[in-house]
Write a structure and sequence with these properties.
- The chain contains 13 helices and twelve strands.
- The chain is an alpha/beta fold and 363 residues long.
- It has two domains: 228 residues, Vaccinia Virus protein VP39 (Rossmann fold, 3-Layer(aba) Sandwich), CATH 3.40.50; 106 residues, no CATH class.
- The strands form three sheets. The chain has an eight-stranded mixed beta sheet with strand order 1-11-12-8-7-2-3-6, sandwiched between helices.
């Protein structure tokens, strides 16, 4: 399968969330594991997709594939098991009455502060100064009074967006670290965030299409056979990141969305260090079988994956997933190598090169 590898470093940054940080609407939820809008645009062009196509992202994350398809006027469906991903993807891809949002904003921001007693997890308490945390809990209480579900969800995401930007928390891989710094008052920053997001909606160009977002396991998708024209996705990498813990603060701000069981995430099962087994590839085999089932004949698939370093061994996830896909019935067109980085031990000892690749398949 190595002969399918082709270097494509000019797409390297596009396989990260970094470009999205400057893009309106896309940047409403910082999802560091995601890829960029521009990568979706390039894949859509490469696949020659038209506006009557249906694109699937079974690991929709923060909704980049769905939102990019909405801009292009292409129908899309996205699934994820992480509730915060489903929530943010839904909020970002909805249509809104922005004047109604402005009226809600006026009422919300004029509301006099009241203090609420609330049980707060330790990581959340350490992530904010006292006043920012009290303001966050207060505004969440007021937002939940809004009867219009779309508006309520919009303001909850606005609050999460604003609160995280003034928090002490930053993500280092699978770990949340606390770094104290000077931060502006939440109310002032929340005000600015709300009106910035509403303004972005006013100027956001989108086409006529349908976007569906649901909570669903990619190994068992609620889709008809031969119903999808293309797949653009990035499954969890071979690193066993606990996304529930990584996004625990954001989940608290939204009000504590239900937490799915850990085995509902791809790659979690046996203790790898003890058993030396990799449930990741068993899970990915199930995902690929589902993709083959739901894809139409001739459908194209783009999967962004990263290689891993487990038990002092480099695991070539891109090659292994491509081989699984081929055994299921896909044709492996290319494996584009987008990024390379060192495999490290003890954070500094270099032990080889890890690839981040985009596998391109055809049914």
């Amino acid at each position: 399968m190595e002969f399918k590898l082709e270097e494509k470093p000019e797409w390297g940054e596009l396989a990260t969330f970094v470009p999205n940080k400057k893009d309106p609407v896309y940047n409403w939820f910082y999802y560091k594991e995601g890829f960029s809008r521009e990568l979706v645009f390039k894949v859509v062009e490469m696949f020659g997709l038209t506006q009557n196509a249906l694109v699937l992202d079974p690991f929709c994350g923060s909704g980049t594939t769905l939102l990019a398809c909405k801009q292009l006027g292409i129908n899309s469906v996205g699934f994820d098991v992480l509730p915060i991903s489903v929530f943010s993807s839904t909020v970002k891809t909805r249509d809104y009455d922005t004047e109604a949002l402005r009226e809600h904003a006026k009422t919300l921001l004029r509301t006099k502060f009241r203090r609420f007693d609330f049980d707060v997890p330790s990581i959340v308490r350490r992530a904010f100064n006292k006043y920012a945390l009290e303001d966050t809990i207060f505004f969440r209480h007021e937002i939940n009074k809004i009867e219009d579900e779309k508006a309520r969800d919009f303001f909850l995401l606005s609050l999460m967006n604003a609160a995280m930007k003034i928090s002490y928390a930053w993500k280092d891989g699978a770990v949340i670290k606390i770094r104290k710094k000077h931060t502006p008052p939440l109310r002032k920053f929340f005000n600015r965030t709300i009106y910035k997001m509403i303004s972005e909606l006013d100027n956001f160009q989108k086409g006529e299409c349908e976007t569906i977002v649901n909570q669903c396991d990619a190994r068992r998708m609620n889709l008809d056979d031969n119903s999808v024209d293309a797949v653009i996705t990035s499954p969890p990498y071979l690193n066993q990141i606990d996304y529930i813990k990584v996004y625990e603060i954001e989940n608290f701000i939204l009000g504590g969305l239900p937490k799915p069981p850990i085995r509902s995430f791809v790659g979690f099962g046996e203790d790898i260090e003890v058993t030396n087994k990799l449930p990741y590839f068993d899970d990915m085999n199930m995902v690929l079988k589902e993709l083959h089932r739901v894809c139409k004949p001739g459908a194209n698939v783009a999967i962004v994956v990263g290689n891993g370093y487990i038990n002092r061994e480099i695991i070539e996830s891109d090659i292994r997933i491509a081989e699984l896909a081929e055994s299921i019935g896909f044709t492996v067109e290319k494996i584009y190598v987008l990024n390379k980085r060192f495999a490290l031990e003890e954070r500094t000892k270099k032990k080889g090169i890890l690839r981040e690749s985009m596998i391109v398949l055809k049914k």
